[in-house]
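Journal club prep — side note

Before the paper discussion, L.F. wants everyone to see what a predicted structure for a comparable chain looks like in token form. Sequence:
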Amino acid sequence: MKIRHAAGTVILISVFFFAAVPVKAVPEKLYSLSAVLMDAGSGRVLYEKNGDDPRANASTTKVLTCILALENGAGDDYVEVSARAAGQPDVQLNMQEGEQYYLEDLLYSLMLESHNDTAVAIAEHIGGSVEGFARMMNEKAAEIGCTDTHFVTPNGLDDEDSGGIHHTTAHDLALIMRYAIRSTTFLKITETREYTFSDLSGKRQFTVHNANALLDMTDGVLSGKTGFTFDAGYCYVCAVQRDGKTFIISLLGCGWPNNKTYKWKDTMTLLDYGNENFSYRTYWQEPKLPRLTVSNGIQSGRGLWEDAVLDGVISVDDEEKNRKFLLGNDEHIECRVTMKENLAAPVKKGEQIGRVEFLLNGENVVASYPVTAAENVEERTYMRCAREVFHDYFH
């Protein structure tokens, strides 16, 4: 253990621990212009390639459209089709102006076959207009934690407004999918292989099939959404479970026509890399807390003119101590204890006197716990000393 001194603090750092597991080389030959592999549990980026570069993202936009509909509408809402919705370009459900549908049915059309007319009908129903819905989308994206996302259309068709062109980043898109898979209804919709429904009149019936080919390529696929426009190229975002680990993968600019399969190759490459190089490990190490001298403090069992000595306490239950964190084979977590210097009486039991932090690779804090005083320490005053002297003299 080594000790460092900083202004006003004493910092103790415990010995590192490492995993003696060989590391597979990071992916170098991805087709995607931008890519992110994210741990769904923590939101930590495990691998990225130009993850913060803004790019058009096509129909992967519909992940957020679906979430806003689920959060702001009801499945049995009546959605009426406007002329604007019916006039959207392919891919379409081919709805007609004036028709009505249940919102729940349209969400399957939106997510399974990526119908552009459906997206606009949903947006107008939830947001009052496409523009109103776009404002909701951007507010939600910011709430989720996106830092460079600006959506103009609910279907992801290339467009722009006064705020700029329709775009996101691979990192922001991964955050949106991470948020989306918290919804059991979203997962139910995007895992469905085939769905049949009709308009409210019952005159027209539709069957939609899931275009997420990854469902048949590997086990554990929770959700996925493809996309393509001429500006965006092929795009994809998905969530997959492997050996108890949940990964989010987002790909932007993954080839253009004649390269339709590139996104599946990149996805499998990133899945294999994540599964082989990351595993869950507990990070808790029992910290060694120094006893602190409390100047001008009086304490039972110590001389009247001796400064008090105070122990610190960390309140951490067994569940928290056993919590696991997804770590790379070559990564480490260290424990850092920071305690107050020049502690002076009075000190109350439970008062914070320090902090224990666990840092990933010595930099990013993954867990933090306060250190509190184990007991009260009274201030050494004239009256307190007089009482002690009187007590000792007569007893």
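L.F.'s comment for the group: The chain has ten helices and 23 strands. Keep this in mind when we get to the figures.
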